[in-house]
Amino acid sequence: MVKIKVLANGPYVVEGEGTLVQIKEGKEEIINQKAVALCRCGASENKPFCDGKHKQIRFQAPEAEFQIR
Prior knowledge:
Blueprint: E1 2-6, E2 12-16, E3 20-24, E4 27-31, E5 35-38, H1 53-56, E6 64-68
Antiparallel strand pairs: 1-2, 1-6, 2-5, 3-4
C-alpha cells in the first residue's frame, strides 16, 4: 500500500512498501528511504523534494491523506 499525506502548510509525504525509484533523465535512481517529502509550495531549491522553504515563505494549505491499495 502507498500512502500520500498532504501535511498542513507543508509538503506531500509519500510512503509505502517496496523500493522507491526516481526516474531522472531516463535513468533509474533508487532512493533508500521508506518515505519522501515532495515540495508543494514551489519554493524548494531541491525540487521535487521539500527543503523546508514552506516555513520561510509561510505557505498555507490544508492537510489531507490518500491511500493506494
